[in-house]
Specification:
mainly alpha
Length: 95
């Protein structure tokens, strides 16, 4: 049994509210959910998949620009760090 039952109840109520609110996004009522549970799950899956496909197009389009710029900057930073290390190691006095 949890130490603080009141905290657990509040968390469960909040989680239930958020899930219920999310289901209204898909226009699902409690009665529809109970009547056609398999179809409802399939519809949620279909809508989720189409959302990821929609977002994927934009991600790929942006990646064509962002990834080469990132690679160029990361490469230049690497070369800069390597040059600094080489310069700092050559400036140390030898004993």
């Amino acid at each position: 049994m949890p130490k603080n039952i009141g905290s657990l109840i509040v968390k469960l109520l909040l989680a239930s509210f958020l899930v219920g609110w999310g289901l209204t996004f898909f226009d699902i009522t409690p009665l529809d959910l109970l009547k056609d549970l398999g179809g409802t799950i399939g519809e949620i899956y279909s809508l989720t998949l189409s959302t990821f496909r929609w977002a994927g197009d934009y991600i790929l389009l942006g990646a064509v620009i962002v990834l080469p710029i990132w690679a160029l900057i990361a490469g230049l930073n690497y070369l800069q760090r390597k040059t600094r290390r080489r310069m700092s190691s050559s400036s140390k006095p030898e004993e």
